[in-house]
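Hi W.,

Here's what went into the run:
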Amino acid sequence: MAEYQTLSYDVLVIGAGGAGLRAAVEAAASGVKVGVVCKSLLGKAHTVMAEGGIAAALANVDDRDNWRVHFADTMRGGQYVNNWRMAELHAREAPQRVRELEAWGALFDRTGDGRILQRNFGGHRYPRLAHVGDRTGLEMIRTLQDHGIHSGMQVHMECTVLELLLDGGRVAGAFGYDREKGHFLLWKAKAVVLATGGIGRAFKITSNSWEYTGDGHALAYRAGADLLDMEFVQFHPTGMVWPPSVCGILVTEGVRGEGGVLRNSLGKRFMFDDIPDAYKNQTADTEEEGWRYTQGDKNARRPPELLTRDHVARCINREVKAGRGSPHGGVFLDIAWIKERLPNAAAHIQRKLPSMYHQFKQLADVDITKEAMEVGPTTHYMMGGVRVDGDTQMSSVAGLYAAGEVAAGLHGANRLGGNSLSDLLVFGQRAGWHAAEFAKANSQGSIDERIPDQAAKDSLAVFERGEGGENPYLIQQNLQEKMQSLVGIVRLEAEMRQALGEIEGLKARASRAGVAGHRQYNNGWHTAMDLHNMMIVSEAITRAAILRQESRGAQFREDYPKPDPEWGRHNIVVRKGPDGMIVERKPVAPLPEELKQVIEEMK
Amino acid sequence: MARPALFRIWRGNPEGGAFQDFKTEVDAGMVVLDAVHRIQAAQAPDLAVRWNCKAGKCGSCSAEINGMPRLMCMTRMGQLNLDMPVVIEPMHAFPLIRDLVTDVSWNFQVKKKIKKFKPRTPDAPDGTWRMRQADVDRVQEFRKCIECFLCQDVCHVLREHRKYDEFIGPRYFVYTAALEMHPLDTESRIAGLKNDHGVGYCNITTCCRQVCPESITITENAIIPLKERVVDEYFDPFRKLLRIIR
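Here's what came out:
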């Protein structure tokens, strides 16, 4: 029998980034007892790294904007395999969620008449991103944190969940451990909200923090829930490429929104060479027009640097492969050039992009007000995740909800910048509300004690194997290298088949992982536990990517380089079967007539 | 560019510990946290270190490097003299959990004691407010804080004098200042500052400002204005007189 402490909640929220905190605030406000479990300290979640802004059709800067335009932009960006209901609710409710943050103390940058300022971003027709310089995520998480600590929620910091607990077909709680002491904990709950974020640590070059090991994806999968769209992994076009130790750290799209341009080693703005048909009408013909757009000219169209992320990432990849890259294998992102157009450009850049200025100065010895940055694609965001109901965010397991990056549907095949923070707010709120309603309507499920006992035993086996076992850090590094090289930006069936073999081998090694020492704050142990989740998500990504024999959004297949209209009518569902992973096609839910019309009007 | 370097890292728990030496290769552009990870992966898998974003944005990897409170992820090896051992210790102002990890939970408890944001009624019928960028600017400086607690670590009122029950530390003066100077806030936290939060203990040595990785002008822009507000409220002779009359 394992020893553990038992705690009881109505709603248990796993994860304390934007979605988790927003869900917890909502659930607590509706009067139920809320527990929050987070892997890091409170306020450190990956949301702090979001830079550019929150997309919401407030229409403060351009009064032509409204939810319909935002909806159409999101569907176009996602190449129409999005969950239309989520895209609709998101576009309708984002403005309200942003204004609410202001009521809780957030301080966004202002327009001349004192309202919330909005900036341009890739794929958004009008300036739509409410922002605070280039540290919007920090502002958002701090606002939710500072508001939330007075709402009555109980926070369990630095805890990892090992298993979800079920009572028949519905959720009954979760079992895990605290990092500090290594003690086991059992959280009983009537409803559970997964808000664990993404999977970026499965790849070598990533903008994601250590927590992003696909925990929620894997927990839901093991609990029998459907995963959706797992093949769609977003590679952000601009990550740092040098020095090696900071490779992958994000360079915000805001740099391009403020007028930054991409050039190859010949000094050419190569983004003008390849503009997808769906965006031809909305893209500038000349450099001059592109510049006017970034400076707020409503009659100008956006420069091709602000095309969607999947496209820009592939163009950069192409330039590098063709031998037109920068010295360290990226391309040049130049914001310093705006001094030709603006007086006091250096001060302007420092004010608009303070973290970027700081980051390059401190980590790469580059002054972005004087010289170009070197950038290249970095694993950034997971469009795929737990399949949820568009209105309630409940998964296919009763009482189990998912919100934010761990949930799938809103973004389809490719997410637009800025739609992530608004996703967290809109669907965090919805998940929190519906989870609380579920908890009010249902009693606590019973717990089968054999499950936590087994989970505890399995996790402690790592210590029994001790130093003689496989080194968990090396297994993680090997997985990251294989996923990067075999299931990355450009995909081929043969390489992905090879990846599946590699994953099998790594799984076997992970089951033999060993660590010396004891349970107290032992990073080696934590890594060994995370490995199991990373294996599940890596396999799901690879299998789904093999099945989708076309190129769409973030998925680019060299062996099937064109989109296939038939695939455009299907999503891919992954779930656990008796003999392993089941991967199958599922038709995209048809759009209602009125939303079809909205999309037509905005074309 | 690669060269070997010697790292002297504190290993231990609340009962005791010692420095342990590790030799590892250092490459161009590496930061201290990279070296610690390299040591962890190859030589000491159970080495306890808290980190998260590795980009200077989350404030998790605070430690003392060659005696200076710093973020490990933002300290480049090139800034350090590698002819000497690089000494890495946990923060001193907080109880040790293990190795480089300390128990910073006191900070989270302190925050809860500070009165929350209370906005004035909205300016517009649609429930929104109007604020000028100039008024927002000075509070935005405070809201850059990543809660790394390096300012708390270096502050002698906490580090040497251990006034945890009477003094909230620089981080929470910055937090209080952000609320007090928020253009919409209507709450007053001045009595708390004077009576419970110990703003008077700060003797403006500016140590906190010097270690802040976000370059927040903690002493001059946050703490001194708060001290002035306390003085205005409680020690202005005219106001004192008014209070007696009332």
